[in-house]
From TrEMBL:
SUPFAM superfamilies: Nucleotide-diphospho-sugar transferases. Residues 13-166 form the Glycosyltransferase 2-like domain. This is Glycosyltransferase 2-like domain-containing protein. The keyword Magnesium does not apply. Keywords: Membrane, Transmembrane, Transmembrane helix. The keyword GTP-binding does not apply. The chain crosses the membrane at residues 253-280, 300-321. It comes from the Bacteria. Coiled coil: none annotated.
Length: 344
């Protein structure tokens, strides 16, 4: 349970930004408040200008600190919570996540090592929808990638922890990202580029409801690709790779981006169709590892995996292309150092 009145006792501040998701927030808070064998902690909810029952839900919890702000997006909400936090370590989760009882204990354990600046946990789900099950297997592929690294450069906000002094010194999340997007990637890259060490803690698990339709999945991937342009503009060294993204996904995005231009060229120059065939062959060859993983873990999802992989690569490539065009055209949202007024 959270520490009572003594500020001196608090070691960890759990910060949850929320906007118009009162029902989901209740489930999250119930789980957060039941953490076991955890260091003394406080729970801080930052209400980002909600207009639903969120404020009333928070009032039901006597042990939860409420910070209210005008709607400014989750990045600003997390920064506000961290600025007012009383713990030495700030921990973030999202209002639609349900942490396991030992989540906090596991997530903060690495901070016993003085060189550790940040830590990241893992997502899990138990949904029946094929696309949600694919999303989970996609995450698990990325977790395998993270486990190859002693230190990582990619900490997602659904299960994240940082030393508060370092978080504040680095100016927190970039509020140029005005909606939930890739602001956590950008902050992680910035910390890693400054020489700070972060670790992956797969035992720090939170449960989550992943997207359930192919359309919403594609829209989410498009949005990631669109804002990734700004992330890479701010951290250009990460264009070559990071600790979270499998090499196969990078290949697939490049091939997806080349598909339409090559198809048009093949209509004009028939011999170019050989290059197009090689591109398609290479794409599906690169999808074999994830498809086999899906088939072994969930045969039904494995049957649909090639389709999902094509949609993933195409949506990311389209988002990257549109974001790049916006940046080239001088869109103020993509000026490094500026804060765009509106998200895509």
């Amino acid at each position: 349970m959270p520490t009572g009145n003594s500020t001196m006792d608090i070691k960890v501040s759990i910060i949850i930004p929320t906007y118009n998701r009162g029902r989901l927030l209740r489930q999250c808070l119930d789980a957060v408040l039941m953490q076991q064998e955890a260091p003394p902690f406080e729970v801080v909810v930052v209400n980002d200008g909600s207009t639903d029952e969120t404020a009333e839900v928070i009032k039901e919890y006597a042990n939860v600190r409420l910070i209210s702000q005008t709607n400014a997006g989750p990045a600003a909400a997390r920064n506000n919570g961290a600025a007012q936090a009383r713990g030495e370590i700030v921990v973030f989760t999202d209002d639609d996540c349900i942490p396991e009882p030992d989540w906090l204990k596991q997530l903060v354990a690495p901070f016993g090592r003085p060189e550790v600046a940040g830590a990241k946990g893992a997502y899990y789900c138990d949904q029946r929808e094929p696309i949600a099950r694919f999303v989970q297997l996609e995450y698990e592929e990325k977790y395998k990638e993270l486990e190859r690294h002693e230190y990582i450069d990619f900490v997602d906000t659904y299960s994240a922890a940082f030393r508060r002094n370092l978080f504040l010194a680095a100016d927190g999340y970039d509020t140029a990202f005005t909606t939930a997007s890739v602001e956590d990637q950008e902050f992680s890259f910035r910390l890693a580029n400054a020489g700070h060490k972060m670790v992956f803690v797969p035992e720090a698990r939170v449960w989550h409801r992943h997207t359930t339709t192919l359309g919403s999945y594609c829209r989410k991937k498009y949005k990631i690709g669109f804002w990734k342009v700004l992330v890479l503009a701010k951290n250009p060294n990460k264009a070559s790779g990071d600790s979270h993204t499998p090499i196969t996904l990078k290949i697939q995005i490049l091939l997806a981006a080349a598909f339409l231009p090559l198809s048009a060229l093949a209509l004009l120059i028939p011999s170019a169709s050989l290059v197009l065939f090689a591109l398609v062959f290479t794409f599906f060859a690169s999808s074999v590892p994830l498809t086999l993983r899906c088939l072994r873990a969930d045969p039904l999802v494995g049957l649909f995996a090639p389709l999902f992989i094509v949609c993933r690569a195409g949506s990311l490539a389209w988002g990257l292309a549109r974001g790049t065009l916006k940046r080239i055209s001088g869109d103020p949202r993509f000026r490094v150092g500026d804060r765009p007024p509106q998200a895509e």
